[in-house]
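As noted in the main text, all predictions were made from sequence alone. Below is one such record, for Molybdopterin synthase catalytic subunit.
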Amino acid sequence: MTISPTICVQREDFDLQTEVDRLTKAEPGIGAVVTFSGLCRDEGGMLAALELEHYPGMAEAEMTRIANLAIERFDLLGLTAIHRFGKIAAGENIVLVIAAAPHRQAAFDGANLVMDYLKTAAPFWKKEHGTDGSAGDWVSAKDADDAARDKWK
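Prediction:
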């Protein structure tokens, strides 16, 4: 059976439990579910929000490609990836990845692979907004993110 991932790029927030329930309700073979939710951190009280932009259509296509890679490599029984865009306040959700598999290691590995690739391959851009009202530069890619992705090759 071919598993189709659930991929969403959306402005509105998501509910973790609702998404887990949606993914797991129809698959009795699931023995492990791993979730990762990324939040906008306040950087020691200096960051009010992140502004996230994406390339519509291309972001969803790349997220689908990444999700299918994880499904195939780890024999996942389900995968959901949601990434928000717009201005996201400190403490709010940015990204959610849910990987479901018969066993825990495959679910952990699937979720990790998806996040490592999302950070480097999906066309999303972040701009910081300070608590002092300032808007910073667009955030640059990090070498550590590339190294994390490269371990899967």
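The chain has a mean pLDDT of 94. Helices lie at 16-24, 58-74, 104-121, 143-150. These features were considered when defining construct boundaries for the mutagenesis experiments described in Section 2.9.
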